[in-house]
From TrEMBL:
Stretches that traverse the bilayer: 27-50, 62-82, 94-118, 124-143, 150-173, 179-196, 260-282, 294-315, 327-345, 351-372, 384-407, 413-433
The keyword Transmembrane belongs to this UniProt entry's keyword annotation: yes
GO CC aspect terms: membrane
Protein name: Major facilitator superfamily (MFS) profile domain-containing protein
UniProt membrane topology term: Multi-pass membrane protein
Amino acid sequence: KYGSTGKPHHLDDLLSSLKLGQFHWRMLALVGGGYFAVCSEMMLFIFLSTPIRKEWDLDTMHFPWLPFCSGITGIIGGYAAGTISDRCGRLLPFLFGIVFIAIFGLLSAFAPSFPLFIASRCMVTVGTGAFEAVGFVLLLEFLPRHQRGAILVVVTLCGALGAVLAGGFAWLILPRFGWRWFVGACAAPAILLLGYQPFAFFESPRFLFTIGKKSKALKVLKAMGRINKCEIPDLDNIICPVSDKPKGRLMQLFTGELKIRTLVFSCIWFLQAAGYWGVTAYLPEYMAKLGAEFYFNVFSVFIGEIPGLFLAMILIERYMLGRVRTLRFFSAFTAIALLLFSFIPEHAFKSVLIILCYFSMVPIYSILNAFTPELYPTDVRSTAMAWMNIVIEIPGLITPFVGATLVSCDIPWVYPLTWGCLFVVQCVFTFAIKTETAG
């Protein structure tokens, strides 16, 4: 219960005084379920290069046009959703994102040609881009400040489980039933989430206060108290200033004190996406080239992400390492694992090292997803995440072509070494971060 004092108190103080309850778990299920669906769709294409090339008799350099084109539409979806979210609210962009993923994810399983398959997958990435710009922001704006980091890591854990699901479906469905059943199965989480959304469909009270819709914000807070079975008094004394700044403008991120912050985090996000997709995009083919049973091996690799995320959940809070030092730790660990993977010849050690690589590489996303929106004010928070979504889609336009070239190279260490060097540079950039938000 938030004590009734009759004195003005800030919205963030009120939200931080509330214990986590059923309302928070509903919102976590909504956003976590969304990221589960997003990641199961995002990981899908790495298993499709061989069956799609066989289906439509494509050469090696034709398939990369799928991630290239879908990367462009992901940029469009993320930017549109982020700017609309900061002007009109978080909910509608979130809803449209999940609808696009569900409908076009299922339709892509019936594509009669490669161009139509690309077109349907492009519409899916409009939805995934929208979620990445809005999803984490929506949840963050309901959370107590002391639990934000750990709970946002849980959302990334849900995404890792979505990747595990895609890996499991690839192992179980692809060899037996073909790629169309596999693609349809990966759309199932988004379809199921559409049925759950009405039970956790609340606009951010923080956003509503900043645009002057106090009565609607209070209505959400009352619903929060009712669902959590707690009293929230002094609602009329809440302070959350109305912002008269232009909302949802990209150039706001590159002015004043936000300028350096945006540039540093843009570099870190870019290197993360380039390194992650560089390693992941052709990992099944690369492992097969080393003689591994690649569907099962990649499934095992995705399982390896989960303990790393649990470790990040512990380390990210103020009483442990905090955001910045945890980011440095996982970035350095990933670089070391990939560099060792490049030059150790024994196959068994390579399998262990690639699992250790994912143990540390995926939690970097969870740290960045928690850390980045905390650094920006409410009126540009979704725009900032939309910008970072644009940044991380850019490597996706290039890495499929680079990866196809590297994986066909006769020198096996070139592929992991190239991407390992990116994480070395990323670790260097983390020392330019001057702000800690833990706690």
